[in-house]
Amino acid sequence: EVQLVESGGGLIQPGGSLRLSCAASGFTVSSTYMSWIRQAPGKGLEWVSIIFSDGRTFYADSVKGRFTISRDNSNNALYLQMNSLRAEDTAIYYCARALPYDTSWYYLDYWGQGTVVTVSS
Amino acid sequence: EIVLTQSPGTLSLSPGERATLSCRASQSVSSGYLAWYQQKPGQAPRLLIYGASSRATGIPDRFSGSGSGTDFTLTISRLEPEDFAVYYCQHFGSSIFTFGPGTIVDI
Lengths: 121, 107
Fold this sequence. Notes:
Helix content of chain A: under 10%
Number of strands of chain A: 11
Structural class of chain B: mainly beta
Order of helices and strands of chain B: EEEEEEEEEE
Distance between the termini of chain B: 34 Å
Distance between the termini of chain A: 40 Å
Radius of gyration of chain A: 14 Å
Shape of chain A: globular
Helix content of chain B: under 10%
Number of helices of chain A: 0
Largest sheet of chain B: 7 strands, mixed
Largest sheet of chain A: 7 strands, mixed
Oligomer: heterodimer
Largest interface: A-B, 27 and 26 residues
């Protein structure tokens, strides 16, 4: 059974750093695409970052240069290192598995339950 | 970058009624390149439809997706009480995911 469990959220001051984790089971993180998506309070879904199976990474403009996505193959886990945090980064952060529909289009078939990040002084 | 718009913003219906949700892309997308998700309060989004019209595992057949080019539709044939939620459409292109702003289906 596929499961994704996020952790690492919390209250952090502006300018601070936080590392989110996503523990995966039922599949191998390194063999697929994995993504982070966030949802600000009362708002819609915002894509944050993706890591491809070949290790390439991509980011939303809003987090580029501040966030880093990575994975640990031995622990079968996904991470999001968040630096220089701002109030507007306050959100629920979800990790999700991306499956291919074909060679160039992907969708998100499994999501974790999310971890809450609050950036406030 | 493709922008997705969804309409209506809110759909007020009763159990047993038919719901028709629209998702429009700012430019034509390749055939099948759209997904739909359902999100209930306090829960993570759940995949309903991928490839524009394929139901995800375990999704009831009252949910159906259709469309091509720039116009896509999610139809719920007969609303059940558990279907009242927010629905998002999604595209993937140029290595990024794009979501629509969502449609609230409420009573």
